[in-house]
Design brief:
alpha/beta, glucan endo-1,3-beta-D-glucosidase, 12 helices, 482 residues, two-stranded antiparallel ribbon
Length: 482
Amino acid sequence: MACLVVVVVGLVEGVAEAAAVVEGLGVNWGTMASHQMLPEMVVRMMRDNGIKRVKIFDADPWTLKSLEGSEMEVMVAIPNDMLGIMQSYESAKEWVDKNVTRYTHPGGVNIRYVAVGNEAFLKAYKGRFMNTTFPALQNIQKALNEAGHGHNIKVTTPLNADVYNSPDSNPVPSAGTFRSDIQSLMTDIVQFLDGNSSPFVVNIYPFLSLNQNPNFPIDFAFFDGGATPLNDNGVAYNNVFDANYDTLVHALRKAGVPNMKIVVGEVGWPTDGVNFANISFAKRFYDGFLKKMASGKGTPLRPGNLDVYLFGLIDEDQKSVLPGDFERHWGIFRYDGQPKFPIDLSGGGNNRYLVPAKGVQYVGNLWCVFNKNVKNQKKLKQLGGQVSYACTLADCTALNYGGSCNGLDQQGNVSYAFNQYFQFQDQDVEACSFKGLGVVTKVNASSGGCLFPVQIVSGSARAAAHVSFLLLLWLVVVVLTV
């Protein structure tokens, strides 16, 4: 097993002058990865790129500690599996004290929102969180008010765009209403949120519209023209984002809150795993969307600046692929903090790469590939089982149809699967055995647009190494002073 001792010093200090970012832009920072960078490193990367707003999916102490003193606006979250606990007001108070009040001091964390749940009313959940979300919202809001945070920190609940729709018989924004099965509940929720000056947070994904509907017009998912406009009583919609957003505006009007603030909690484009999820389309989407944000035109019903969090910041190789094999590839940065493609967060259209993460350390320049010297047919017949084993634990979604590694030959497919598992296991030599079918090499096996990655030293391993070093140093000092 590879071992590396490092000392982590000053990862946030000394940040270079940040790049310009369009007004209203933030990012989602997900952490469902097998090997995460140090949180301090991620914060520095965001600051180096001028990002001043971040949305996270929990209230992890290590993450929040890394955001102290950064002045970044932060949205913390209560996961869906905690909504039941928040039915107790005492539990809500305890959560606010531990995860909000604890960090809201001079030089602390600039928490602006508390997200209660995430897409809790997805149809796929079959009503699982229907009875717990609103009471949790009410209790957290009450706890924030009691703790003196209610004026500056707003409660909300990010929802998927499937909570509203237009009928198939009249698929235009002006026909939009909240879904019939939750219409009464949604009306109560939005009136409660609006009464507390809290926003409606919605996740809108043009990619999903394209990916899920074989008849969807490709150009309508983007912002560079070419699509046949959707006419809604004289209002022309040239892209699905605007149409979706304004469908929500109509639903809010019908629910009695016509001026409620809208925040786009997630919007983005994945870069691998399925057809349409690639670098070319992602760049096209972000170029158009960021120019749209910079224009300040908004949508036909809501002209002006948009309030948006891009999804997402970094790839997450442990996300569930039940929604699709693209789920692990939403990042504008790779797993190691390297930018995937040129993107101008100012919306100016400049073809430049983002500033990569600094101080990333890799386990070693080693790869695991198929051993071409194996000729034994009995062994070769085990290849399928070994590849399946590797891909059950490691991420092989780039091998799928439409993926960046889909063009590899059979041996290349095997090598990619073996290497993914090998890197997942921190390049442990035993993880490249595969019953003698794998071999470790120092030759980079990447081919064309297919990256054979090299694993990074995870943040937790680096932190543990730092603690071990300090403990060793302390023991040396003790011994020398005896």
